[in-house]
Amino acid sequence: MEPGRASTQLSATDARAPARVRGPIYLDHHATTPCDPRVAEAMLPYLVERFGNSGSRLHAYGWEAEGAVDIARARVAELLCAERDEVVFTSGATESNNLALLGVFQASRQARRHVVTTAIEHKSVLEPVRWLERQGCEVTVLRVPRDGRVREEHVRAVLRPHTLLVSVMHANNETGVLNDVAAIGRLCREQGALFHTDAAQTCGKMPLDVRALHVDLLSLSGHKLYAPKGIGALYVGPRASRGRLAPLLLGGGQEGGMRAGTLPVHQLVALGSACEFAMAEMQEEGVRLLRLRTRLLDTLRERLQGLHVNGDLDHRLSGNLNISFEDVDGELLIERLQHHVAFSTGSACMSTSLRPSHVLLALGVSEDLANASLRLGLGRFTTQEEVDATAEHIVRAVEEARLPSTRGNAAPTRAREGVRP
Ligand SMILES: *Cc1c(COP(=O)(O)O)cnc(C)c1O
């Protein structure tokens, strides 16, 4: 049997939930997903028995590893409707984003270079863009309207003849809001700019076709689609290859010279396996998650006043709910809820500082509402019982965290430092 190939037809109900340690209900699937036990099972033999280096050309250990790499690459390509040789394996979406942005800049021989991105991107796009700016690159960071959707006409308005690259994420990791990447990609193509999208949140959640989306570069991450952490990929289309992308890592020339380093074969097998399960199950899973999310939102709206949904609800990942509450002490809300439900407020990467999310602020959400926001991410193993229990926990926590004052007379929010244990 091929690695990760299920012997029977796959359905969401076949997926076995990982044995959960007793703890809060896990609703933080935008931060990370558990490794699917079927994926872990597929990868294990490549840690122990089939340990070969896929670059070893002279013996069966190497050939076996190489075969597994080929299958994994084919599965990732299939999920993206791409060709196998367009997939470059990386350590995750952070590296993929860095490779796309820095690599295109490095390879460009243009004297004047202009890069466009948006204020709601992940830090692994915004920080490389800031670095490019320090290297003398002209940078435009687009504002995003209240509904969280990047507008094609805003991109059109800032494109110049010397625009090298445009990077707009597919779905935002906080609001789950989807961008019309196909329209923006088409526009970039017309104007001769390369187009990159960070698809870490959509890959494996909805059908992706790199050609229909008109993307030249696309980032994905294993641990957002039920594979382990530490593996990802960058799709490199025909317009971005052939000298238009410089590698960041030099060495043994792996991945067509685009990313040196011995391939972590077990990780690739896991990612390939996760892609295959996603292909087979994403539609059914999406419908199920949308039903659960709707049930959760309906319950909360029925029971609580002053609830705001952050970002457009109709163009959104089915497992995402990002909500804020009026007249609520955000710090107290987190304190009351965090032992029952694992959620996030703002981006997980910033949650140690607990500053209001740069994404919500970019959408014009007030600081008070941003501080009293919950990002809930439902996933493959989330059950209806968990959703119902979560609704109860949120209702109780919000009621306990309600400010005594009424609207327009909100008490000052306390300093947010040191809330988390
Ligand atoms: C998680 C995430 C990343 C970072 O991915 P890693 O594989 O953890 O480096 C980048 N962009 C988005 C949108 C993400 O959700």
TrEMBL record:
Record's keyword annotation contains Iron-sulfur: yes
Annotated ranges, domain Aminotransferase class V: 25-389
Statement: the UniProt record of this protein carries the keyword Iron-sulfur: yes
Molecular functions per Gene Ontology: 2 iron, 2 sulfur cluster binding; cysteine desulfurase activity; metal ion binding
Signal sequence extent: none
Superkingdom field: Bacteria
Enzyme Commission number(s): 2.8.1.7
PROSITE patterns, per the entry: AA_TRANSFER_CLASS_5
Pfam families named among the record's database cross-references: Aminotran_5 (PF00266)
Cofactor dependence: pyridoxal 5'-phosphate
Keywords: 2Fe-2S, Iron, Iron-sulfur, Metal-binding, Pyridoxal phosphate, Transferase
Name of the top EC class for this enzyme: transferase
Reaction catalyzed: (sulfur carrier)-H + L-cysteine = (sulfur carrier)-SH + L-alanine
Homology family: Belongs to the class-V pyridoxal-phosphate-dependent aminotransferase family. NifS/IscS subfamily.
Protein name (database record): cysteine desulfurase
